[in-house]
């Protein structure tokens, strides 16, 4: 292998290894019954997300239910009367939005 090629190979491998270690945010919400919804958050590497912000927001951008995921990475809330979406926000680049229409029925 030529000496000129080695630094390029090293840079390629270093860049690739960082992307392998990356993890993506994941959030799933489902209706427990007609009145309550439970959301579970975490990351694609299998880690949970306790303490991460999960807000229920109206279409007018009003926060209807401010919340944080519990120790089990879940949050259960009463279904709002207004149209809404759920915002899982673990920081820049780690945000998931779930519209009410995408929430699984019981």
Topology:
Layout: H1 5-21, E1 25-31, E2 36-43, E3 53-58, E4 63-65, E5 74-78, E6 84-89, E7 95-99
Antiparallel strand pairs: 1-2, 2-5, 3-4, 3-6, 6-7
Count up the helices: 1
- Radius of gyration from CA coordinates: 19 Å
Low-confidence stretches: 16-20
From the 3D structure, determine the CATH topology: Immunoglobulin-like
Description:
The chain has 106 residues and is an alpha+beta fold. It has a single domain (23-102), classed as Immunoglobulin-like, CATH 2.60.40. The chain has one helix and seven strands, in the order αβββββββ. The chain has one helix at 5-21, and strands at residues 25-31, 36-43, 53-58, 63-65, 74-78, 84-89, 95-99. The strands form two sheets. The protein has a four-stranded antiparallel β-sheet, with no helix packed on it. The radius of gyration is 19 Å and the shape is globular. The protein starts with a helix and ends in a 7-residue tail after the last strand.
């Amino acid at each position: 292998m030529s000496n000129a090629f080695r630094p390029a190979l090293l840079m390629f491998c270093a860049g690739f290894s960082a992307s392998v270690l990356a993890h993506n945010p994941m959030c799933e919400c489902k209706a427990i019954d007609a009145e309550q919804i439970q959301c579970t958050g975490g990351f694609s590497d299998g880690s949970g997300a306790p303490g991460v912000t999960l807000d229920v927001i109206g279409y007018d951008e009003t926060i209807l239910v401010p919340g944080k995921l519990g120790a089990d990475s879940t949050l259960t809330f009463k279904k709002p009367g207004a149209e809404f979406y759920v915002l899982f926000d673990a920081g820049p680049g780690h945000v998931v939005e779930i519209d009410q229409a995408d929430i699984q029925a019981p």
